[in-house]
Specification:
554 residues; alpha/beta; TIM Barrel; Oligo-1,6-glucosidase, domain 2; Immunoglobulin-like; 3 domains; eight-stranded parallel β-barrel; six-stranded antiparallel β-sheet; 24 strands; binds the ligand OC[C@H]1O[C@H](O[C@H]2O[C@H](CO)[C@@H](O)[C@H](O)[C@H]2O)[C@H](O)[C@@H](O)[C@@H]1O; binds calcium ion; isomerase; calcium; maltose alpha-D-glucosyltransferase activity; Malt_amylase-like_C; maltose alpha-D-glucosyltransferase
């Protein structure tokens, strides 16, 4: 591994679930040995970092986000030694590993909670969690899992008190006012850092503290605590990365960067639904508007941008009107909706239209930030919205046309979830083996765009500027650094479109299309009537077409 403390700025992150990836021992559940065997695939795909969903001991009532032991591996996925072997094998291939640090809450089966509910009131043990005699406190706080919970308080018959939880009732929130909790989290962090993991995704991080009269999100105390985690990391583990999961409006989200002294990365939640909105509305405005309203971030920080992940396509960061639009456009069947979002994968959301899948990926790989790919989306996997909760997007990875999609040798009934068998996305045709053999498959195209992105660090760390377009259906922007100028144009429309751009800044440059190395006509400066130089440049794009151009001086 090269030592570059800013590695995350030019990373390609691949999010995966150990459970869903590859089952080595035929019990129907993916495991670390299976994942290790698939590292060659991930290396060939070109990704440079893996983000692993939770793999810790857990009753699995929220797919592992309900931890019952912080410093070991759930035995269904293997042993801690299996994890270490995997980590070493990933590092040998130059692939970094990001794991989850779920510190807002634990499972109600965690020994800390078992101890707290029995401990005397006012004791440090009891105060590991947030208790109250009434469910009236913090009443300005929204409920996140609103299809499943009616309150952020639940009654505990053993403690004879209510406890606070932002998510499921079986996920009690830790109490950060207790110094013992703050210290315990440092110890968990040290454990995984000492093992050599490269990054931590800080799950549900805006909700650490509660204060009366607030919405209990993004509180100053939360930022102060995160800064203390960061300073600890900087002193002990200088090239590691903290990735916040702060599902917030951009003005609040940027606060998780501090002055470059808090988290290194944060997901851009408001951008994600607007990529889908712009596409269906055939209008660049939602994307332009949200990025123009995104404050600048410190140089050592980076957005994580994504199209889909393991959760619903969350619509928390849109207006009520936009949410209605998104439900109408992408989730007409109520079974496709859960909480405040849409539980579908990328390909089905886009009607399995290869052009739209490529277009959104072209934006994922060229807009400012580090792209995060969700496992299976690189082959256009389908979903199963009838599996409940968000499980429909968490089905086994489809490797081949063999039984169980090559994921497991178990009897099919034994798989943790069934593989996708509906006609359009059936694993017999939608799988890695079939697509690896076809140079025109989505998988081959994904390898190509990843390889191209990796050749040009300007995408990870260059400046970003919108280019006014005469046609609002065509989005245009420039990525630039001292070495290179890259022009990106993207047609959000289902019909062919033309647009004219003012490229006077690049007069006498030749655009070279980056995928095919084709030179386009030069950008010629003309003298405008007022004497200034003008360089209007016209482009025609196919339906959902896009171009990436390097602008070279003639
Ligand atoms: O650990 C509880 C949950 O934490 C994350 O949740 C995030 O996803 C929610 C949507 O499912 C979102 O609304 C919320 O703002 C986030 O914190 C995690 O990604 C979930 O899988 C998990 O259930
Ligand atoms: Ca297994």
């Amino acid at each position: 591994m090269t030592t570059n403390p800013l590695w995350y700025k030019n990373a390609i992150i691949y999010e995966l679930s150990v459970r869903a990836f590859a089952d080595s021992n035929g019990d129907g559940i993916g495991d670390f040995v299976g994942l290790t065997q698939k590292l060659d695939y991930l290396q060939e795909l070109g990704v440079t970092a893996l983000w692993l969903l939770p793999f810790f001991p857990s009753p699995l009532r929220d797919d592992g986000y309900d931890i019952s032991h912080y410093t070991s591996v759930n035995s269904i996925y293997g042993t801690l030694d299996d994890f270490k072997t995997f980590l070493q094998a990933a590092h040998q291939r130059g692939i970094r590993v990001i794991i989850e640090l779920i510190i807002n809450h634990t499972s109600d089966q965690h020994p800390w909670f078992e101890r707290a509910r029995r401990a005397p009131e006012g004791s440090l043990e009891r105060d590991f969690y947030v208790w109250s005699d009434t469910p009236e406190k913090y009443s300005d706080t929204r409920i996140i899992f609103q299809d499943f919970e009616t309150s952020n308080w639940s009654w505990d018959g053993i403690a004879k008190a209510f406890y606070w939880h932002r998510f499921y009732h079986h996920q009690p929130d830790l109490n950060y006012d207790n110094p013992a909790v703050r210290q315990a989290v440092f110890e968990v962090l040290d454990f995984w850092m000492e093992l050599g993991v490269d990054g931590l995704r800080l799950d549900a991080v805006p909700y650490l503290y509660e204060r009366e009269g607030t919405n209990c999100e993004n509180l100053p105390e939360t930022h102060e605590y995160l800064k203390s985690l960061r300073s600890h990391i900087d002193h002990k583990y200088p090239d590691r990365m903290l990735l916040a999961e702060a599902n917030q409006w951009a003005e609040d989200a940027v606060k998780y960067y501090g002055d470059g002294d808090e988290c290194h990365m944060n997901f851009h939640f408001p951008l994600m639904p607007r990529l889908f909105m712009s596409l269906r509305m055939e209008d660049s405005l939602p994307i332009v508007d949200i990025l123009q309203h995104t404050p600048p971030i410190p140089d050592n920080c980076q957005w994580a941008i994504f199209l889909r992940n393991h959760d619903e396509l969350t619509l928390e960061m849109v207006t009520d009107e936009d949410r209605d639009y998104m439900y109408n456009a992408y989730a007409q069947d109520p079974a496709m909706r859960v909480n405040v979002g849409i539980r579908r994968r990328l390909a089905p959301l886009l009607g399995n239209d290869r052009r739209q899948v490529e277009l959104l990926n072209s934006l994922l790989f060229s807009l400012p930030g580090t792209p995060v790919i969700y496992y299976g989306d690189e082959i256009g996997m389908g979903d199963n919205v009838y599996l409940g909760d968000r499980n429909g997007v968490r089905t086994p990875m489809q490797w081949s046309s063999d039984r169980n999609a090559g994921f497991s040798r178990a009897a099919s009934q034994r798989l943790y979830f069934p593989v996708i068998v509906d006609a359009e996305y059936h694993y017999v045709t939608t799988n890695v083996e079939v697509q690896s053999a076809n140079q025109y498959s989505l998988l081959s195209w994904m390898k190509q765009i990843i390889a191209l992105r990796k050749q040009f660090s300007v995408f990870g760390s260059g400046d970003f500027k919108f280019l006014p377009s005469s046609n609002h259906k065509i989005l245009a922007f420039v990525r630039a650094d001292e070495q290179i100028n890259v022009l990106v144009v993207a047609n959000l429309s289902a019909a062919a479109q033309t647009a004219t751009f003012d490229l006077s800044l690049f007069a006498n440059h030749v655009p070279t299309e980056m995928f095919g190395q084709t030179e386009f006509p030069a950008i010629n400066a003309k003298l405008a009537p007022d004497g200034t130089a003008d360089a209007p440049y016209s482009l025609t794009l196919a339906p959902y077409g896009f171009y990436w151009f390097v602008l070279n001086p003639t």
